[in-house]
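Page 42, continued from yesterday. The earlier attempt failed because a stray header line got pasted into the input along with the sequence. Redoing it now with the clean sequence only.
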Amino acid sequence: MYVCSCFGITEQQVKQHADAGACTPRQIASACKAGTDCGGCVRRIQALLGRGECPRRDVLADLSRPAAASAVTELPDAA
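This time it went through. Structure tokens are written below.
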């Protein structure tokens, strides 16, 4: 079934890009242009991506968290 009629992108193609590491509609768009013309397929792409695991999602979440205050160490004063 077609997801993006503008560029003829199928569900299977979106799933292949997701399996290759694309976790967001923007990353899918970079891979195959789906969602970059009329935008009518973006919600469908989001739904397809939401069904599976994204191996990079945990990494991205870790990067967006601020560092814990206890992780900051003070340097000793030079005497």
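Notes: The longest strand covers residues 2-4.
Reminder to self: strip header lines before submitting.
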